[in-house]
Write a structure and sequence with these properties.
Layout (H helix, E strand, L loop, with lengths): L15 E11 L5 H13 L8 H27 L6 H21 L3 E10 L3 H10 L2 E8 L9 H12 L7 E4 L7 H18 L3 E7 L3 H5 L4 H16 L6 E6 L12 H11 L3 E5 L8 H17 L4 E5 L6 H14 L4 H4 L11 H10 L1
Parallel strand pairs: 1-2, 1-3, 3-4, 5-6, 5-7, 7-8
């Protein structure tokens, strides 16, 4: 195997800190062909679908990729903007804002890149840019407040798989989760409170992306983290039991996923009450197909059509100042001890050129 190197590297080049923000991903276009490419990559990840590979390949390519892309493309068309995918636009805006704040603190010693686990911009391309910029310390920040093997762990695998091909591997740290951060809880709570000030207080439904129940039974802590997140936010908002609830959305296939399912929970509320609800999706850093089309379109229409009286949706934190400040805080917290945060240039003592380094080696 030939490892990826930097043959034109000049000794003395300043080392840098790289910060990689990673979100789930999005098709390049809201077309059937583009969605098929995206789903083929996404659904083939064994972290997402834990199933025997030969059997799953037949199901994926023989059934799912023949039927689902057209339906999903129609859904994407409903949320697509002239500038592109909402998830990509908000992720870019957040990344640029975080980069601006970090560069004010650290100057040219930091590089910040956005990548998607599936689709573009890819993790490989972002890491290649870091390698060319002499990033020798890498902090990976998955844009998932709650850890799951289906999301955060998949990012870890893809990042480390790419780095394993490098000749010179940087120091590596990964933020596993941030739902315990007080800044996250306060930012989320404040966004709900501000929404209620404008639209009125209603029963609060926390909707998290679901995972198969068997993953939870196998030890995935995601369900516990979601419940704990909701409890913390409800407590900060001063909500009593019965004023809030938790549900799970976006299930796929026939097997049992985490319950209660949000669509069925809302159908029950529409009939029996509470008939006035506010939906929030704390597991999503940025708005996307699942929050805009599934929650704020499909579930809104179904709830109101079944007898519900009022349906509000609180947008994700997106690139708002509280989330930008949260991400800056996470970077500064998890990069502690690295020279970029201490104002040192640890490459200053290296020889100033390849020739000088070879000369010193010859003398020794």
């Amino acid at each position: 195997m030939t490892y990826v190197g930097t043959p034109d590297y000049t000794h003395g080049t300043p080392a840098r800190l790289g910060v990689l923000l990673v979100n789930l991903g999005t098709p390049d276009e809201p077309t059937t062909a583009a969605v098929r490419r995206y789903l083929a990559e996404f659904l083939w990840d064994p972290r997402v679908i834990e199933a025997p590979r030969p059997l799953w390949w037949l199901v994926l390519h023989g059934i799912i990729l023949r039927t689902r892309p057209a339906k999903s493309a129609h859904a994407y068309q409903k949320v697509w903007t002239p500038q592109g995918s909402p998830l990509l636009l908000e992720s870019r805006a957040l990344t640029q804002a975080v980069a601006g704040r970090l560069q004010k603190r650290l100057g040219d010693r930091v590089r910040v890149e956005l990548a998607m686990t599936y689709g573009n911009p890819s993790i490989k391309d972002a890491l290649d840019r870091f390698r060319r910029d002499n990033v020798q310390r890498l902090l990976v920040l998955p844009m998932y407040p709650q850890y799951s093997a289906t999301t955060t762990a998949s990012i870890f695998e893809r990042v480390t798989a790419e780095l394993s091909r490098w000749r010179w591997i940087p120091e590596l740290r990964i933020v596993n989760q941030y739902w315990t951060e007080s800044r996250y809880v306060s930012a989320l709570s404040d966004s709900i409170a501000a929404h209620w000030q404008q639209h009125g207080r209603k029963h609060l439904v926390f909707s998290f992306h679901s995972i198969p129940k068997r993953y939870f039974l196998a030890g995935d802590p995601y369900h516990c983290f979601c419940q704990a997140t909701a409890r913390r936010v409800a407590e900060r908002l001063g909500l009593e039991k019965g004023e809030w609830s938790v549900g799970f959305q976006s299930r796929f296939g026939r097997e049992e996923w985490l319950k209660p399912y949000v669509d069925l929970l809302l159908a029950e509320y529409a009939q029996m009450g509470p008939k006035r609800v506010t939906l929030v999706c704390p597991g999503f850093a940025t708005d996307c197909l699942e929050t805009i089309e599934e929650i704020n379109m499909q579930n809104r229409e179904a709830f109101l059509g079944a007898g519900g009286e009022a349906f509000d949706y609180v947008p994700c934190l997106n690139s708002t100042p509280p989330q930008v400040e949260l991400y800056e805080h996470l970077v500064l917290k998890h990069a502690q001890g690295w020279p970029e945060l201490e104002g040192r240039d640890d490459s200053a003592e290296l020889p100033k050129s390849r020739e000088r380094a070879l000369a010193l080696g010859a003398k020794n």
